[in-house]
Amino acid sequence: MEKRLSEELGTTVWTESGLGAPADLDQLQRRITELEQQLADVQGQVDERTEELDAARAANRELTRALNHTPEGTGPPTPRRPRPRSG
Length: 87
Known about the structure:
Layout (H helix, E strand, L loop, with lengths): L1 H15 L8 H44 L19
């Protein structure tokens, strides 16, 4: 009886001290799995958006390069300042 009581008290102290494994270990493991899946999903979205951003930047560079190398008179019109009226 003394041995049994000692084991019970030891288990109780071990668990309450935080040194023992939590009773809901399976629930915590499921939560970890859920969070890992969410992380993988979000990382996939970030990777996809990064690829889209890289493609948009490349297109922007090409358009800028094309505009800067357009022969005189064939590019988009440049705004002109109105001349002050004398009067």
